[in-house]
Amino acid sequence: MKARVAVVTGGNKGIGLEICRQLAAKGLRVVLTARDEKKGVAAARALSKAGGEIGFHPLDVTDPGQIAVLATWVERELGGADVLVNNAGILIDGRSASVLSVDPEVFHETLETNFFGPLRLSQALAPSMVKRRYGRIVNLSSGLGQLGEMGDGTPSYRTSKAALNTLTRMLAAATRGHGVLVNSMCPGWVRTDMGGPSASRSVEQGADTATWLATLPDDGPSGGFFRDRKPIAW
Questions:
Q1: CATH code for the domain in which residue 40 is found
Q2: More confident residue, 64 or 203
Q3: Are strands 29-34 and 53-58 parallel, antiparallel or unpaired?
Q4: Which of 105, 161, 208, 221 is most buried as measured by Cβ atoms within 10 A of its Cβ?
Q5: What is the mean pLDDT of residues 163-178?
Q6: Which residues are catalytic?
Q7: CA contacts within 13 A on the Cβ side of 156
Q8: How far is CA 171 from CA 73, 160, 179, 180, in A?
Q9: Domain containing 101: what range?
Q10: pLDDT at residue 181 above 80?
Q11: Is 196 left (phi over 0), alpha (psi -120 to 50) or beta?
Q12: In whole angstroms, what is the distance from residue 10 CA to residue 36 CA?
C-alpha cells in the first residue's frame, strides 16, 4: 500500500515544521509548503536527513494560481492528497488592538491568509478526497476564535479563527459519508515566532493534536474542535 500523502501549509518553521516531522515519522509522504522557497527547501532537506519522505512545493496560500498549480501537481505526481493541514497563518494586530480602531485592511489581509487560504485549498483538494473516499483536513485554529470566550484585542485574528471554525463545520457537513474527516484544533500558547519565547508549550506539544487528527481512524470524529486531543467548546 502506498504511503498516504499529506500537504502541510506554512511548513518551514514552528508548528508546521513539527507537524511535517511527526507525520513523516508515522510513515506519511509529506509535501512541505511555504512561501519562501529557499527556507522551505532547507527545511524539507533537514527533515529528510532525520528520516522520512518529505518534499517541498512552493505555495503562497493567498495566491489562487499557486493553489491550482499545487493541486494539479499533487494529483498528477502523487495521486492526490490524502491529508491537508491548514497551518499557515498570520497575526498582524496585537493584543492591545481594538475592533473600534483597527484598519479594515488588516482584517482583509488576515482573512486572506487565515480563512480564504484554507477555503481555497479545501476546495482544490477535498473533491479528490471525496472521490477516493478518504481524507483528513485539519485546520489550525485558536482559542481566541471561540465565541464563548470572545473579547477585544487581536480582532482580525480572532475573526479569522472564528471564520475558520465555521469553515470546519461546513466542510465536515459537505463531506460527511465520504470517508473525509474535517476538524479544527487549538495548539495552545506555543514557543514559536508568533507565540514568543515566553509561551508555555513546546512545538512538539502544539503539533501533537494536529498529527493525531491528520491520522484519525475511519471512525474518528469530524466537525469537532480539539485541544490536547480533547473536544473544546466553539
A1: 3.40.50.720
A2: 64
A3: parallel
A4: 161
A5: 98
A6: 157
A7: 21
A8: 23, 16, 12, 9
A9: 5-231
A10: yes
A11: left
A12: 9
